[in-house]
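Trying the structure run again after the queue cleared.
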Amino acid sequence: MGRPTRMRRIAAVTVVATLALGVGAAQAGGGKVSASNYNFKPKALTVQKGSKVTWNWVNGRHTVTFKKGNFDKKLSKRNPSVSRTFKKAGTFRYICRFHTALGMKGKIVVQ
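Done. Tokens:
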């Protein structure tokens, strides 16, 4: 069999890291996203259908605005969190209206 090639070693490390971090696995019951420093963290979140996702304000002035649908909520010190329940499967992309030029965007993948 011999020594594994460099590409096989990289692929093996990637698979182990992915499994260890739970990347790609849908979170049961929902998830949380923080809004700070012109970023949503995490930028992509995978949840199960029927889950509630909550966005939490950390600093600055932000919005959670979905490109499709009627959801445009402000996050600020006065309104530190907003939530949305995802009843349908699909990929839902959103932005911060105040910081779109800075690339403040994210997506929720519902399985």
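The helical segments are 6-21. Worth checking whether this holds up in the mutant runs.
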